[in-house]
Structure formats: C-alpha cells, structure tokens
Amino acid sequence: HSRDLAKWDRISHYGSDGSNPWDRVKRTGYKPKLAAENVGTGQVSFDEVLVGWKESEGHNKNLLIADAREMGLALVQDPKTEFKSFWTLVIGASM
After folding, report:
1. Contact status, residue 25 vs residue 93, Cβ threshold 8 Å
2. Looking at residue 41, what is its pLDDT?
3. Beta bridge partners of 86
4. In this structure, what are the phi and psi dihedrals at residue 23, rounded to the nearest 5 degrees?
5. Distance CA 50, CA 65 (A)
6. Among 36, 39, 52, residue whose Cα is nearest residue 11
7. Quick check: 35 and 27 in contact, CB under 8 A?
8. What mean pLDDT comes out for the span 24-44?
9. pTM, full prediction
10. What is the rounded distance in angstroms from the CA atom of residue 58 to the CA atom of residue 30?
C-alpha cells in the first residue's frame, strides 16, 4: 500500500484500485479475524510517525487493539514526491 501511495503521492486508506485495508489484507492470503491500518506521510523516522499515530484518536485506538497478534510495517521513501515518505502499519489477528 505504501508503494501505491508513493506512486500517486497521496495519503489514503483506499488504494488506487479502490481496495480498502480489509481487501488488501485478505488479498495476501491472510485470514483475518481482525485487521486495522494506520497510514502516515511525511514523517522522517519511525519515532516521528508513532508519535503522530499516538496523538490521533483513531490511529491510537488501532495501536491499542488488545486482540491484535501480528503486525506489518512498510515505509517507502521517494524524494521526488510532495510527501517524501509513506508509512503503512497493518495490525491484525488471524482466525
């Protein structure tokens, strides 16, 4: 998802193909019982993006999901774009 955001230089939970986080998680073959996604753009470091997520009510709620067991984190950097960095965190638990 971070590659897609960088390609189009935007921030969204929807992919350029119209997919939502749940669609993308299932597309990988993961069988989610729960899944949540945080995205961020422009932050230089993980610490910076994490602070931003913690300060956002909805993003922080995702970070605190007690039943989550797995996570995946991606960062794509592209200096030719407006945002320069594109973060995606997926938190989940499988069936």
Report:
1. no
2. 98
3. 41, 76
4. -55, -50
5. 15
6. 39
7. no
8. 96
9. 0.94
10. 23
For residues 42 and 27, give the distance between their C-alpha atoms in angstroms, rounded to a whole number: 27
Q: Can you tell me the distance from the alpha carbon of 15 to that of 10, in angstroms, rounded to the nearest whole number? A: 10
**In sequence order, what DSSP letters do the residues of the chain get, joined into one string?**
-HHHHHHHT---SS-TTS--HHHHHHHTT--EEEEEEEEEES-SSHHHHHHHHHHSHHHHHHHT-TT--EEEEEEEE-TTSSS-EEEEEEEEEE-
Query: What count of residues does the chain have?
Result: 95
Contact of 94 with 32, CB cutoff 8 Å: yes
Tokens of 48: 């910076």
- Nearest CA among 11, 56, 31 for reference residue 22: 31
**Strand pairing category for 32-41 and 70-77:** unpaired
For 94, phi then psi, to 5°, come to -90, 165
Computed over every residue of the chain, the mean pLDDT equals 97
Q: Two tokens at 86?
A: 């594109």
